[in-house]
Recover the amino acids of this structure.
């Protein structure tokens, strides 16, 4: 019986249950669970003491070690549950941080889009003003062209009229010369 119990104790020490390993791994990372870690260390010390006593004392009651193993298991479950709670709290904090970051990103994106819209409106306004200026310049140039065309028409009409008047005057003077019998020197 003692050999079996000693073998169980040795197996437990060498290959502890998985939840115990998880609890110990989590405990080393979480300062808040230090009291549970100390309790488990005390239980391990007591377990080592009782296992040594079980190997030396033939009248040793094995239920003592079993009770201690149950206490150790309960304590490891408590530590594991506390670690899970801490992890859930950290997850909630991380999610809250992510939500805050997303909200900040949304606000930054919204302000950037507002700035872009204002910039776009300003560019449209400037382009419209420039286009209106070009349209006005083109309209003035068209009017100037029309005026120049009218002026050229009037000038050409006056030139034609003057040429006709000159030709008419030459013809009249030639007829006068012919009728008076004088010969023109040319």
């Amino acid at each position: 019986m003692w050999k079996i119990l000693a073998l169980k104790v040795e197996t437990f020490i060498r290959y502890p249950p998985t939840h115990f390993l998880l609890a110990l791994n989590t405990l080393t990372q979480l300062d808040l669970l230090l009291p549970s870690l100390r309790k488990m260390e005390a239980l391990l010390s007591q377990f080592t003491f009782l296992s040594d006593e079980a190997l030396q004392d033939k009248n040793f009651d094995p239920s003592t070690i079993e009770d201690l193993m149950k206490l150790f298991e309960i304590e490891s479950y408590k530590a594991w549950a506390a670690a899970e709670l801490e992890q859930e709290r950290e997850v909630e904090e991380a999610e809250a941080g992510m939500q805050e970051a997303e909200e900040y990103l949304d606000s930054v994106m919204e302000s950037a889009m507002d700035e872009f819209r204002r910039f776009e409106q300003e560019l449209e306004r400037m382009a419209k003003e420039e286009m209106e200026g070009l349209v006005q310049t083109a309209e003035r140039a068209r009017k100037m062209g029309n005026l120049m065309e009218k002026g050229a028409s009037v000038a050409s009409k006056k030139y034609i009229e003057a040429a006709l008047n000159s030709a008419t005057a030459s013809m009249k003077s030639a007829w006068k010369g012919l009728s008076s019998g004088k010969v023109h020197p040319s």
